[in-house]
């Protein structure tokens, strides 16, 4: 890799000597260098592992890594993603503590990686240094602000990498590049030697492809000693968060749900409307809603509170440099820094109260070894050269999901969960603050099964195009015929066959739920309707049939909550919400 610098330097000499011809030689040399590392690296060097006094191998021996250009490395300028910052700062006099932990544990640091300007973006582009190429989706953005860190791992340039995550800057690039990303609990990993962005949310995170390596690196960063592995008691599926996603729910979370059922049993799964929970458990959000005159939901209000705190802390940290250096910034970064500089402190007491309430509420929800399952981002990565206004809209939707860990201090890990339109998808697990080891252990236990289920999904989709679709439809029609004969048990058997062949069709679950209702198997009917709604959140019949099941079990409030989700023009056919037509 250092030879790239020699090529470029030699090309500069040719450029001077040959004029225009030299320019084309230089451009070709630069392209070659970029192709070799996908534009991830800003600087190559080597920090060899510390020598161990014992003969025993160190835990990270033989592994290579690189760091985001926000970490101090002794003797090198920390660039913070902006050339004006680099030009106005001296080389670091010490190496960031997190980097030192890894080198002392046997890993070799091989360089610094590109990042978004001032760590103030989740997209992955940079006006000055360009956009690193996403190996998993070259026509789409890599995610940021730890863009180079995600790309370097996805392109197999290093075994793992370091990034920072204030508001998604590890989780987003990991999701976009189809790799693993770990944001630890706030305060769990020291940030000494790391340029601050907003210290109420700043964390040092890491990327890897291999869950074993991610776990090893996480343990070194967290400075944890060995403890017994704990088994998760419950996985809470945040249904409303998946409804924010534009990706079909079965595609995004189906493999994860099936994997949890296989490894931990069906009883380990529960469903939650996280927005409703936050609205009830974080009462100060209503005060903020009145202050800003907004009709946003609870999660969006939580995101707004986080962004307001982030702006204020960024201003406190960097106002002096911004006003003195007057740096050249990209348009999006310039707009955000301007908003930060205009921020006042008058709402800070309220915002801190919201943060305290959210931290208590989310951590209380996840006590007793419970995990929250939610989408990492609301959609697949935006395409390169997407219009700025579309990127900003995407950013706000993504921040609705990102703010949960930020405002609670919880740890979160994102993992690949198949592909949609040949682009990576991701699902996250979130554990209470301080449960980092438990989270990494659970990921290790779950990851292989999720990948097997993802592969099975891909094979199933391929099979459907070869005639299996017709077999599933035939089974459904047999079920419909049995239902019309009032042979409900046989109808359930046929619908089950259809589901076995094509498990991502909400109609099959809807029809089986209807048969279960006739047999007064209300719990099974409710479960099938919930599955149908995961697959199609606009299924009116699933809402109504689930309402019938819940009313029949005496869950009147839950039934009413489901009816409130119906489109305004929907008329209930009877007081109990029963709908008996076949599909």
TrEMBL record:
TPR repeats lie at residues 472-505. Keywords: Membrane, TPR repeat, Transmembrane, Transmembrane helix. This is Amidase domain-containing protein. It comes from the Eukaryota. Residues 55-210 form the Amidase domain. The lineage of its organism: Eukaryota, Viridiplantae, Streptophyta, Embryophyta, Bryophyta. Belongs to the amidase family. It comes from Physcomitrium patens (Spreading-leaved earth moss). The chain crosses the membrane at residues 7-26.
């Amino acid at each position: 890799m250092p030879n790239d610098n020699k090529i470029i330097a030699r090309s500069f000499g040719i450029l001077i000597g040959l004029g225009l011809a030299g320019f084309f030689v230089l451009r070709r040399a630069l392209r070659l260098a970029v192709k070799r590392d996908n534009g991830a690296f800003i600087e190559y060097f080597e920090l060899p592992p510390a020598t161990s006094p014992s003969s025993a191998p160190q835990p990270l021996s033989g592994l290579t890594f690189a760091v985001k250009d926000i970490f101090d490395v002794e003797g090198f300028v920390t660039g913070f993603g902006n050339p004006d910052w680099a030009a106005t700062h001296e080389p670091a006099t010490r190496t960031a503590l997190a980097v030192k932990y890894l080198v002392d544990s046997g890993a070799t640091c091989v360089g610094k990686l590109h990042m978004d300007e001032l760590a103030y973006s989740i997209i992955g582009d940079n006006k000055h240094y360009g956009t690193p190429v996403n190996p998993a989706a070259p026509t789409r953005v890599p995610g940021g602000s730890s863009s180079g860190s995600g790309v370097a791992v996805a392109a197999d340039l290093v075994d793992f990498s370091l990034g920072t995550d204030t508001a998604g800057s590890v989780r987003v690039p990991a999701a976009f590049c189809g790799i693993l990303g770990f944001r630890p609990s706030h305060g769990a990993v020291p940030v000494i030697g790391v340029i601050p962005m907003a210290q109420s949310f700043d964390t040092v995170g890491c990327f890897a492809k291999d869950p074993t390596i991610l776990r090893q690196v996480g343990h070194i960063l967290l400075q944890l000693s060995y403890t017994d592995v704990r088994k998760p008691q419950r996985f809470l599926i945040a249904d409303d968060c998946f409804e924010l996603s534009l990706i079909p729910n079965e595609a995004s979370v189906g493999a994860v749900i099936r994997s949890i059922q296989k490894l931990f049993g069906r009883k380990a799964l529960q469903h939650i409307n996280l927005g409703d929970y936050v609205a009830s458990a974080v009462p100060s959000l209503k005060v903020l809603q009145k202050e800003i005159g907004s009709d946003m939901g609870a999660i969006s209000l939580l995101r707004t509170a986080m962004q307001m705190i982030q702006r204020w802390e960024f201003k406190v940290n960097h106002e002096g440099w911004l006003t003195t250096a007057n740096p050249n910034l990209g348009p999006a970064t310039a707009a955000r820094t301007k908003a930060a500089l205009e921020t006042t402190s008058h709402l800070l007491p309220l915002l801190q109260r919201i943060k305290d309430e959210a931290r208590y509420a989310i951590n209380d929800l996840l006590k007793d070894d419970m995990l929250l399952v939610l989408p990492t981002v609301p959609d697949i990565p935006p395409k390169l050269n997407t219009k700025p206004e579309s990127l900003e809209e995407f950013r706000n939707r993504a921040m609705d999901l990102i703010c949960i860990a930020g405002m609670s201090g919880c740890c979160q890990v994102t993992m690949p969960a198949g592909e949609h339109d040949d682009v990576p998808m991701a699902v996250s697990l979130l554990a209470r603050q301080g449960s980092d080891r438990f989270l990494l252990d659970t990921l290790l236990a779950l990851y292989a099964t999720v990948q097997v289920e993802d592969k099975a999904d891909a094979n199933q989709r391929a099979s459907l195009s070869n005639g299996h679709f017709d077999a599933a439809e035939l089974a459904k029609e047999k079920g419909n015929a049995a239902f019309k004969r009032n042979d409900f048990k046989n109808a359930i058997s046929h619908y089950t066959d259809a589901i076995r062949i094509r498990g991502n069709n909400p109609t099959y679950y809807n029809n089986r739920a209807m048969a279960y209702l006739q047999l007064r198997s209300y719990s099974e009917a409710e479960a099938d309707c919930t599955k149908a709604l995961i697959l199609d959140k606009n299924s009116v019949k699933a809402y109504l049939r689930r309402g019938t099941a819940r009313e029949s079990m005496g869950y009147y409030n839950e039934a009413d909550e489901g009816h409130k989700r119906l489109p305004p023009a929907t008329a209930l056919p009877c007081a109990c919400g029963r709908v008996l037509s076949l599909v």
